[in-house]
Amino acid sequence: MPIDDQKLADYEKLDREYMEGPARPLDQYGSVLMTSSKYLNSARFRDIYAQEGLRRQGRDVPTTVLIHKTLEAFADVQEAVHIEALFAKDRNNNPELAAWLDARALALFSFDELSGYAPGTFGGTIHAYVSARPGFELNFTRRGLVPTSDWTYYQKAATLSHDLEHMITGFGTNPIGEQALITCNIKSFCRYFSAELAGELTRLISFQMSTNVMKTNLHYPQVLGTTLEGWAVGIAMGDALKRPLVMADWRGYLEWPLEDMRRDLNISDAPAPGTWDWTSEARRG
């Protein structure tokens, strides 16, 4: 007997409704995008998230071309009053955190003062790192930010700490080294801070992590497996840290040999110099 196509189930409709719920009439939709997610409601945030997740790492622009716009997009949606309240709760339960926030120490080093430290010390490592990068600045974003609160202090400290974290972890400034440092920080933050505060403090790097893996999968699949390896190394290191690296007494370590400093921070598996450097070229163009 011939099959009566009219009686066949509309499996596409059933699948769609299973995932999305029953279809709604057009008059039940609004004329503008409005959801319960402030991130999705932000046109600037949606645009920058899509760009970073879908674009190629073109040779026509610096790899950091959208970082400043990303910071602006986050400024649109993050609520400083809420984040300050989360810091207040955590500092009340964590005297070590409270002392770090109260001290407001910043890793502001002049090139001249670093020149006197011996090779192999942390100070000497910073000097060599800066010397190899003409025009480089540790204070590469938020240069005009003057900390007046726990949240603004954290933002400034995190900026100044970023490249110092690359040096002490051994995670190079290549695509996988950046991802390894991100997972290291996410893991250590989740262990040290309350869940809500850790979420706020890792929101930017989680953005970078998620858009990175999508971009890599779409355009540079030859680097995808190594990306996951970098994540694993970073997670393991972050799990072993005594506290988040941003809280390190960077100035107090300047005279320390790098290996002694790593032992003090509980870093035992720093990759060898040059590890993953090949990914800079493999994930470009």
The number of E-state strands comes to 0
DSSP helix fraction: 55-70%
> Could you tell me the strand content as a percent range?
under 5%
Average pLDDT, rounded to a whole number, is 91
Low-confidence stretches: none
Let me know the largest β-sheet: none
Number of domains: 1
What is the 3D form? globular
Structure described in brief:
The chain is mainly alpha-helical. It has helices at residues 11-20, 38-41, 43-54, 67-77, 80-93, 95-103, 111-114, 122-131, 150-169, 175-192, 195-201, 203-219, 224-240, 258-265, 278-282. The chain is 58% helix and 0% strand.
What does this structure look like?
This protein has helices spanning 11-20, 38-41, 43-54, 67-77, 80-93, 95-103, 111-114, 122-131, 150-169, 175-192, 195-201, 203-219, 224-240, 258-265, 278-282. It is built from 15 helices and no strands. The protein has one domain (78-278). The chain starts with 10 loop residues before the first helix and ends with a helix. Helix 10 (175-192) runs antiparallel to helix 12 (203-219). By secondary structure, it is mainly α. The longest helix has 20 residues, at 150-169. The mean pLDDT is 91.
Task: For this entry, give a set of tags.
mainly alpha; globular; 285 residues
List the helices and strands and how they pair.
Blueprint (H helix, E strand, L loop, with lengths): L10 H10 L17 H4 L1 H12 L12 H11 L2 H14 L1 H9 L7 H4 L7 H10 L18 H20 L5 H18 L2 H7 L1 H17 L4 H17 L17 H8 L12 H5 L3
Helix pairs in contact: 3-4, 3-12, 5-6, 10-11, 10-12, 10-13
